[in-house]
Each structure stands twice: as structure tokens, then as C-alpha cells.
Specification:
The structure is a homotrimer of 157-residue chains.
Chain A lengths: L7 E11 L5 E4 L1 H11 L3 E8 L4 E6 L3 H14 L26 H8 L4 E7 L2 E2 L6 E6 L5 E11 L3
Antiparallel strand pairs in A: 1-8, 2-7, 3-5, 3-8, 4-7, 5-6
């Protein structure tokens, strides 16, 4: 078997997303599909990496009631009104800022979700199943968020 | 330091897996190892991406009683018999199909598990630790499932 | 638009980490940054893969009280003192070793955390947000742990 080898290329871009709710599922898919089309990569990978510690990148269905179910699950996992040592000014000494947020619950929710997604590019398109969409999950919004996106693969027709 | 650069190649394949249980840990490892061997890639990455929203790809041990423990954990996380808005026909309007499944619990379980795994290829072999195996996790079976697999890296001896 | 294509290179290294606690967040970031700097890769990916089934690789903040919150969450998710079939010698027959550990809880915690992290390399540096650090999460320590790290991308200035 012979394998035709085309040059591999890498392209990076940064995406800024303004979220509007405390918990939000922001659909990145259309934007990612456009990036893949523009990159001219036929076969390869796209790595979608959030640059924050109270967000996540997940792949699931874009159905609003399901997102309400997801929000309920996250709230059971790490309730907003529970006590977090991260939020206790009487003991905390590390990484304190002037505008410190009460967000221990958001960090805990981020812990059990992926912070990035590596997805395949096939035939010049982002490979996703019928119901799959890629989301930035906001866990401590509203905020302006930043996502680092790397595309790597073979170009050509 | 000089680095010898060999051409990088990308290869994609799709794997179909028939699951037989509602919750199942289907071991993909032997198949993935064969794909790596056939690809002729010496150093690189393999990205194993499920194309579904009620499955996951996880790396853990292949021990049947452990998988029963995993199933119990997933059932505590998102119980089968809880109420999910995704499954409520009195309010749901989006993405409805003729053969709609009652599977809010399965989506919720998928949320807290990875939908893909990016693993290293070293010395021409899938790099895994002693007890590591790669599983498709079925959360709403039995179904025929599809997995997209990208291999990328340097060939040669 | 023309894209300048430089040769892509792949480099692999193994990192050994001695953990000292049953549950521990071991910060790998400084080491990973040094690996990226040494590799001479300007644009690409670094895939950080734990080789164990009772560890995880997560990206979050390095704040000790937050790690105590994380440990509490993991203990609620899969309590240390709950009953796990994986730990029941009266029924277990598979993968038994002479020095078998009581660690069903650790496997269950690993299930809901990522076992690897694929991160971007931009302008010759590991791309991380202001508060992001990369951790090996020890779930059944203290142990000596092994991490497989692949760097892939374009070199040059």
C-alpha cells in the first residue's frame, strides 16, 4: 500500500464569545465549520480549547430543554449555595484579585467537564454526528470568553 | 540539536459498533491497535471520536465488576427514572423525530464523560499503560454506533 | 491566500511523577512549558496522556483551597467508604494481582475526569489562559506515575 503524503499545515485562531447568562450553552459549531472550510485542510484535527477555568467545551445536542436538564445536573453536582473553601475570605490567601468572584461552584462544575475538544476533519469538513454540536459551556457568566482553536492537517483537493 | 523530519501523514477510518445493552463498555483497544499497526505511523496521535450524543469514549480498566460500579455511579448521577425536560412531550418542540427515545438520562450521563479520546502513538504502537483500555460507552443502547478515528503522525521505521 | 508550509515534526517524551497523597493535584505546567520551549515547535499540539486508570489530567486553577473543594466533590461522587464490586474478593475474578489495592472509588472518580488533555502550542509557547494550569490528578496515591507527552507541529522562527 502506498500512501500519498501532502504537506501538513497548522493554523491557529482565537475566538471571542460574549456569554449572557450565569450558566449557558453557547453553540460554536457554525463558526468552527467556517474555520475548517477556510483553512483548506482536507484531513486532520481541530482542537478547541477554552482559556478559562470556569468554562468547558462539550459535544452534545442543541435542544434547549436538554440544556435545562444539564443545568440541573450541574447544580446537583456542585450547588451554587453550598460552601466552598475557594470562596472563604477568612482562609484564602492564594490568587486573590480585586474583583474576586464567588465561583467555587463554577470551578467544581468545570472539573467534571472537559476543558477542550479534539475533533476530526474529514473530506474538508468538521466530522460530527447527526445530533452533535460543539458548545462553550459558561459556568460563571455573563463574561467575555476566549477560545483558542488549532487546525492541523493535510491540504489539497 | 537537529531533528530529523519525516513527512507527516493523516489517515481516517470509520468504525461501526453494535452494542447490545442499555449501558455497555465496549472495548475498542484491539481494533485501535490494529489500525495503528496498519497505518505505518511511528510517532503521532490517534483521535477516537464518537459520533453520538448518548455515548462516550473513556480510558479505564477492563474489569466487568468495575463496569458494574461505573454503571451504578452513572445511575446515581442521572437516574433512569428521574424526570427530564428533554423527555417531556408537553413542552418539547425542538429536534423531535418520529422515533423519539426517552433518553434525557443518557444525554446527562454523556455530559459528564468525554466524547472523544486523543491518544499517543509511540514506536509504531498505541501508547497505553498496563491496565488502560479504550471503551465506547453506550448509554442508550442497544444501538449501532459509529466512531470516527483519525491517525496523524510520522511514518518510517 | 497562500499558506507557508513548514515541515511538521513529532516528539515524544515520558514524564515520571511521584505523588505523596491519596488525592493530589500535581501541577505539570512548568515542566510542559519547558518541553514546548525545547521542542522548537512554533505552532501545533501537545497531548498529555496519563498512563494510569486511577489518575486524571485536568486543566484548572492552582489554588490549594479549591483543590480541597475538588477533593470533597470527588468524595461525594464516589465515596472512599462505599462498597465497590471491583473491591469484593468474594466475586472478583479478573485482573487480580498479588498487591491488589482497594481502589474502586479511585477508578470511579477517574471515570468522570479526562485521562488526557490536548492543548495548543502558539508562537512557540503552551497556550493557556491567565488562571489555567495543567494537573495530574492522583486518585489512589501515593504512587509513582507515568505520563506520555506528544508534541506535534511546525518548527521555525
Amino acid at each position: 500500500m502506498e500512501t500519498l503524503v501532502r504537506p501538513t499545515m497548522c493554523q491557529h485562531t482565537t475566538l471571542r464569545v460574549p456569554t449572557v447568562c450565569p450558566t449557558e450553552f453557547y453553540d460554536l459549531t457554525t463558526h468552527l465549520e467556517a474555520l475548517v472550510a477556510d483553512a483548506g485542510i482536507r484531513t486532520g484535527l481541530i482542537n478547541v480549547q477554552s482559556l478559562h477555568t470556569t468554562t468547558a467545551i462539550v459535544v452534545n445536542e442543541n435542544e434547549p430543554l436538554l440544556h435545562a436538564d444539564f443545568a440541573s445536573l450541574l447544580d446537583r453536582t456542585a450547588p451554587t449555595d453550598a460552601a466552598y473553601r475557594h470562596d472563604d475570605p477568612s482562609v484564602r490567601t492564594v490568587n486573590l484579585t480585586a474583583d474576586e468572584r464567588i465561583n467555587g461552584h463554577a470551578h467544581c462544575r468545570a472539573l467534571v467537564l472537559p476543558s477542550s475538544a479534539c475533533l476530526n476533519i474529514v473530506d474538508g469538513r468538521l466530522r460530527l454526528g447527526r445530533w452533535q454540536r460543539v458548545f462553550l459551556v459558561e459556568l460563571d457568566g455573563p463574561r467575555e470568553r476566549e477560545i483558542s482553536i488549532m487546525l492541523m492537517g493535510e491540504g489539497g483537493q
